[in-house]
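2024-03-11 09:14:02 INFO queue: dequeued item Phosphopantetheine-binding protein, len=279
2024-03-11 09:14:02 INFO validating residues
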Amino acid sequence: ILGDFGSCDYAIGNRFQMAYAHYRQEKQLEGKAYGKSLVINWPLWKDGGMGVGEEENSKLYLKSSGQRFLEAEEGVGIFDQLLTQNKTQHLIVVGERSRVQRFLRLSSQEQPVVAASTASMSGRPGRRAEMKGFTLEQCIEWDLKEQASQLLKIPRDKLEQDENLADFGFDSISLAQFAGILTNHYSIEFTPSLFFGYSTLEKLKKYFLIKHQETMKEYYQESAAEDVSEKVPAIVMGSKRQAAKKSRFARQKTVLTLQEQEPIAIIGMSGRFPEARTI
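2024-03-11 09:14:37 INFO prediction written
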């Protein structure tokens, strides 16, 4: 119903159940079937073992959509109520009403649109000045934090690598925006479901390193300009006649250029000590 991540086989089974229940209900109205058909689209139960993989993944999914786990006592009570209803199908969602409505797109409130990063593959390489000397892994980490920081308006030093994305304040809307930003940034198509499988910045970083290694290497390649060593001032030798014509100012200019490259202190001292023939 909601396009949950990592539950394709379960979703297909649900879809068949829903279609068959509606089909059977039609047959019942025609007098060709008996009894009552009831479809209940349940959320995640706290007990019972039905989850979405790792605990961190379930946590991100629920917090980002404004949901929570359904308690067993609540579920049994809802089931009893639905048995008395005439409708064939029912969707059960528990959590914060306003956030759930927004998640299900039942709210008329328009969602803010966050502009995607202007840094894209057209601006290769993606290794900026502040990344000089970084490893590939450090470059990816820097960019992930930078994009998340700008989107959520959180200082980058507050974004811990192992914290769940939901703890930063991501919800279903901002996760979709984050996916769009990364898609534009790397020119690789991403969907919000990516974050449910990789629910921390550390996991995201490893995903990029493993799944898109070649693209990352190309994107963060060192610029040719960065590989050039510091230039040493060239001294052009001319004829003795030309050298004689050069004023002391020209010689002074050469010395100043050398001093700009590397500070040099020249200290001179003269004198004569008593009874010292050579000092």
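2024-03-11 09:14:37 INFO annotate: The chain has a mean pLDDT of 76.
2024-03-11 09:14:38 INFO item closed
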